[in-house]
Structures are given as C-alpha cells and as structure tokens.
Amino acid sequence: MNRLEDIDVRNQRVFLRVDFNVPLDDQQRITDDTRIRYVVPTIRYLLEQGARLIVASHLGRPKGKPHPTLRLRPAAERLGEILQQDVQTAPDCIGEATERQVSSLDAGEVIVLENLRFHPEEEANDPDFARRLAGLCDVYVNDAFAVSHRANASVVAITDHVRVRAAGYLLEKELSYFAKALSDPRRPLVAVIGGAKVSSKLGALKHLLERVDKILIGGAMANTFLRGLGKDVGRSKIEEDMIGQAAEVIHQAEKNRVRLYLPVDVVAADGMEQSAQTRCVPVDEIPKDLMALDIGPASAALFCEALHDAGTIVWNGPMGLFEMEPFRNGTQQVAAQIARSEALSIAGGGDTVAAIHTAGVAEDIGYISTGGGAFLTLLEGKTLVAVDALR
Questions:
Q1: Which of 64, 108, 372, 373 is catalytic?
Q2: Spatial contact of 361 and 336, defined as CB atoms under 8 Å apart
Q3: What φ, ψ does residue 15 adopt, rounded to 5°?
Q4: The domain that contains 94 carries what CATH number?
Q5: For 10, which DSSP code?
Q6: Is residue 89 a contact partner of residue 76, using CB atoms and an 8 Å limit?
Q7: Which residue in 50, 91, 133, 359 is deepest, having the highest Cβ count within 10 Å?
Q8: In terms of Cα–Cα distance, which of 171, 180, 173, 108 is closest to 145?
Q9: Are 203 and 380 in contact (CB under 8 A)?
Q10: What is the mean pLDDT of residues 153-157?
C-alpha cells in the first residue's frame, strides 16, 4: 500500500476522501471540528507538494437525496479557517459544473465537493458513480478510516478507476496503532469492552479471546453475561437470544486462561432519568423492579485494579449510561485509570470518545481512534474493504 511520500502529486488532481461527518447545531455551526483537524496534516502535505486538491466526504444520512442541513459548506469554511486560505465549494460531487470547477484549480488550491451521500449510488458502491468520481482526478488518497469498513463507491469502487492511489497520514496512523495494540502488544494486553449489546460486540470478543490476557466487560451488555451465569438482573436490559453466547464466551475465556472480569455490584434505578433514585447493590441482589445502569464502586475498583499492570489497553464502549450524571461514575473511574496508566492505550467508538471527553482525560489517552464501525471491524480480526482496495 502506497504512502503519501511514494507518489508524485505535483500539479496532479488529487481526490482526497476524508471523513468530515462533523456534528452541527441548529444554526449549521460545527460543534466539534476534531475530524477536520485530524486530516489537516495530509491536506497540508499535499498542498505543499503542489497538488490540485479535491476533498470529498459524506455528512449524516441524507438517504440518497440532497438535504439543506447536510451540506458540506460549514466544513469547507472551517477547513479554510484552519488552513488560512480560500477553500472552494462545488455544487455537487459529480456533473459538468463540478468538473469545470475542478479543472480550473491551480496547484495548491482546494475544493470541497458536495455531500457524497446525496447520491444513493455512493452507499451502493455503484461502479458508474465511482467512474464519474474518478474522472475528476489523477491520484486517489484515502484518509477516511471511519468509513473504510464500508463498501462505498468513494472508498472501494473508485480504486478500480484510478491507477495512482495511497493512504493518507490519518489512515496510516490508525492502522499502525491498531497493529501495535493487537499484533505485537506490550503485555499484559487488556481489553475493556462496554456498551449496550453483546450481539454487536460478539465477533470482537471472540477474536480478542485469542489475543488478550484480560477482558473487562461493563455496560448494559454485562447484564446478559450475568444472566449467562444464572443471576437475576431485575428489569435490566438484556438480550435473551445472546445469553447462551455470553455463557460460551465466559467458558472460552476460562479455557484460554484469559481473566474475564464482570461487575460485582451495580448502580440500579427504576428508570433511565436524570432525577432517578439510585441504589448500589451487589449483582446477586438486584431488585426485581430495578435496572442496572452503571457498574458500582466495587466493580470500578476491581476494574481499575485489573488495569493497574497493563502494558496495552484497548477500550471500546462505556461502562454505563454515562450521558446521565447518576450513571456516570463507573465510566469516569475506568477512564481516569486508563489515562493514568503507563500502558499504550487505544480507544475507539463514538460513545467511547464521548465518554473520554466527558471525563476530561482525552489528552492522556495514548490514541483516540476516529472510527467506530471500522475500529470494531478490526477488533473482530477482519480487514477493512477500503484498505484492501488501496492495495
């Protein structure tokens, strides 16, 4: 797979696929520009090398139709502010008007195409749509890790029509950190897995059981594991059809000599509300009319102790309903311990990143991935289709 330094981009039209899927408020103002700032090193390098730069991204889920609140102009304007230069915007990502604008670019100039997902062919990985995108450029660069697990036209089919292609700095960095974490980790290697559903993490759990030394399981998915051990979890959210699978994961961990940690106590309440009355109870004594919404203080202490000697930590998913203050403590304690650790720590997933920022420890996490689904795909031991296409 080519790196940026392996290709000549001087005066070439470079199609740079990025992830500018940034949050916007009601006034179309960007509330978090992290995803834009993460690809600036790639953009600066290409511009310094004299590229005529075409930036392409999706934003939100417009379902294949133009949507006035999902246009990329705010992202283009923010990019211009960061680069301190003019950034043009195109009326579409394909079509004659866009082609004319692109062809008039000079070396060192930038244009941001309109939302790729305004066309249903993008998510359908349509070859004709990909051919039209490829017709805009001489060189293709993928720096959109967060969508590289999806077979979309702008990251997969387009590579059939552009001879010179490479990975951007962000994509390269994401893959490098992940390789450090799972291919040749400093041990003990500890996985912290949380979130709502066992079903969405089962593949990752099975793959991790072959590689890690310890697994810590929190969040609502832990309730299904507790049921797998025969415990009554009251009204807690569980996946009935995954109880057997959860029990099998527990069995496989024991067989593989992987230490698997589950909550020993929980913060329980009668509802998922900010004003809910909470009780801290052992997992063997969850009242039938309450639901577990966070790991308890004893569980947080147990998890932190398990992380104490870690050499590498991979984290995906919060320990509870951290969005609400009564159920935030478990996630915050675990986040603080990971931040304090001398281990190489890598965290990924939208909720995980939000939890890190809520805990105020972002600067102390070794690497925060920009991908949710892509991060999980790698945790499952699978390759990313867009990375395969680059090769």
A1: 373
A2: yes
A3: -90, 110
A4: 3.40.50.1260
A5: T
A6: yes
A7: 133
A8: 171
A9: yes
A10: 98
Q: Is residue 317 part of a domain?
A: yes
Q: How far apart are CA 292 and CA 235, in angstroms?
A: 8
State the pTM of this model: 0.92
Question: What band does 350 get if pLDDT is binned at 50, 70 and 90?
Answer: confident
The whole-angstrom separation of Cα 13 and Cα 107 is 9
Residue 48: Cβ within 10 Å count: 10
Choosing from 244, 350, 360, 391, the catalytic residue is 350
Does the annotation count 373 as an active-site position? yes
State the number of CA atoms in the 13 A half-sphere of 94 facing the CB. 17
Residue count of the chain: 391
Domain that residue 220 falls in: 185-379
What are the distances in angstroms from CA 387 to CA 30, 178, 270?
29, 14, 46
Would you call 197 a catalytic residue per the annotation? yes
Q: Number of folded domains in the chain?
A: 2
Q: Does the pLDDT value for residue 302 go beyond 90?
A: yes
**What DSSP string describes 207-264?**
HHTTT-SEEEE-STHHHHHHHHTT---TT----GGGHHHHHHHHHHHHHTT-EEE--S
Average pLDDT for the chain: 96
Of the candidates 35, 52, 150, 165, the residue annotated as catalytic is 35
Residue 293 lies in a domain: yes
Same domain, 73 and 221: no
| pLDDT tens profile 27-36 | 899 999 999 9
